[in-house]
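Regression test attached.
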Amino acid sequence: MKLLMGVEVAARRQVTPAVVALTLRPTKRPAFPPFRGGAHAILVLPDGRRRLYSLVSDPARPESWEVAVLREPAGQGGSAWLHDAAPVGTRLLASHPQQGFGLAEGAARHLLVAGGIGITPFLSMLPELLRAGANFELHFCARSAESTPFLPELRAALGPRLREWIGRRLDLPALLASPAPGTHAYCCGPARMLEAFESATAHWPEGTAHREHFAGLPRAEASQGEAFEVEIASSGAILPVPADRSLLEVLREAGHAVDAACEYGACGSCVVGVERGEPLHRDVCLSPAARRQSLTACVSRGRGRLRLAL
Ligand code: FES
């Protein structure tokens, strides 16, 4: 992964029993690179594991970042390590900010829908919305007030623009039934909520319903699928991609410097242009428009032969 920065845990606060917020400071530069609300970064743990976290701090304060880590008992140990073994002073590596999700420019109204820890990408959007005096509301769904991260801060900052659905169901089809002109809707939460949001916004104008996923394919599955081949546009070389290897691996082995961060289809850093052919998209980060002309090399594949803009 290129463009990694050294970071240090500068502070920690327990937001709920299962969520810890870590303040990170850069170790070799006075401030982090700029980002807009909704961006994420990838943390590289000392054993090489990579985890993607939304930046929850205000983009206007680049001297530090804050990320919120949910302890995932069924995970692979990355979140538990950050909870239990990363005290203040711990040094890590982090990617530059990546902007897969963010506020639509020029929208007349923003309708935000968050479920549980899915609140995190919205936390850096909210200061931007408040500063701009934007027309917005945030619907926040969670099981109980005690397990809901950042609830007191949100209540204080948003007042009636925060609609709480704590322990009760939000009727997404009803909320999203009639898209008003200029309204953009955004959702981040568990897979079931994202699916419900997708079907409830199926009739919305293209590009006005935005979703943020946190997890792509498990790594073992990410490099498996049907065999296919790619043609490199600049050289005409044909490279076979066997069923048990990823396109990313094959391209790198052939000497192409393709960047990659998450390697499970969630960050978009490995995107490669497609000039011809039928990609089989397996990522969870590209928009429909991006998918028409590119694919993620880490998890996506192709049918037959693809011609790549490399
Ligand atoms: S490396 Fe993140 S989507 Fe491919």
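Expected vs. actual: identical. The first strand starts at residue 4 and ends at 16.
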